[in-house]
Specification:
Blueprint lengths: L1 H29 L2 H11 L1 H5 L3 H16 L8 E4 L2 E4 L3 H37 L3 H31 L1 H12 L12 H5 L2 H32 L2 H6 L5
Antiparallel strand pairs: 1-2
Helix pairs in contact: 1-5, 1-6, 1-9, 6-7, 6-9
Length: about 240
């Protein structure tokens, strides 16, 4: 029973760590104005949208502020092709409202998971049994390995047909069809498929890097034991 509790705790730590890191990295990417501008230059979105670079930066800043929850709406007008126009249509605003809601829910889930992980790690580290800590570390390590395998599978699927994977992703996340926007709308011009491919690659890179660092620590504990328990000289299971 003692070992079973350790395994359960380790699995929960692994799930919390993976999910928390994915949510955190995704949020940092979507709140990074420089990333939007970098992709705009690569995809020639400024010219295609028909706005000046300063106005494009204003629009980008508005999107980021809205997703962060600091702007109440996406109402913004700029000179588009020489005429002062509203940038986003009602359906685009409705879709972005759905996107913001998902990020807000994800943010809440992330902090709950980090809090759970902190409590579990504290309980594991203070446990008098070194074997308990080792079992928990091994379970957490295995959980991360499973995530790596699942992530690799998703990466292969996305690399074969990113559009289909992206479409399925939207069908799962959204309960309406507001994400089915015409190619001529501002949101699609600013955030084309290439934008999301770059974002997915960046998400994968930083998630793998951060998990690899965490995994290194878990592997050390799994092999050498919990230094706190070992320092006490307590090896009781």
């Amino acid at each position: 029973m003692h070992k079973l509790l350790a395994i359960i705790a380790g699995i929960l730590v692994g799930i919390s760590l993976v999910t928390g890191i994915v949510f955190t990295v995704a949020e940092l990417i979507t709140h990074d104005k420089s990333f939007y501008m970098e992709q705009a230059k690569k995809n020639d979105s400024i010219t295609e949208l028909g706005v000046s670079a300063p106005d494009y930066q204003l629009i980008t800043a508005r999107i980021v502020s809205y997703l962060e929850g600091n702007a109440p709406n996406l109402d913004i007008s700029v000179q588009i092709s020489g005429e002062n126009n509203e940038v986003f249509t009602p359906i685009e605003k409705s879709h972005m409202a759905d996107v913001r809601n998902i990020f807000q829910v994800g943010s809440v889930i992330r902090w709950y998971l980090f809090a759970l992980m902190a409590v579990l790690l504290l309980a594991i580290s203070l446990n008098k049994s070194n074997e308990f800590c080792v079992a928990a570390a091994k379970a957490a390590t295995l959980t991360i390995y499973v995530f790596f395998a699942f992530g690799a599978l998703l990466a292969v699927i996305a690399s074969l047909d990113f559009y289909s994977a992206f479409t399925l992703f939207h069908k799962v996340l959204f309960t309406n069809n507001n994400w089915l926007l015409p190619d001529t709308c501002s949101l699609i011009i600013m955030l084309p498929l290439e934008f999301f491919i770059a974002a997915a690659c960046k998400l994968a890179f930083w998630t793998v890097l951060l998990l690899a660092i965490a995994l290194t620590g878990l592997i050390i504990i799994a092999r050498k034991g919990n230094p706190i328990a070992l320092k006490r000289g307590n090896y009781i299971d």
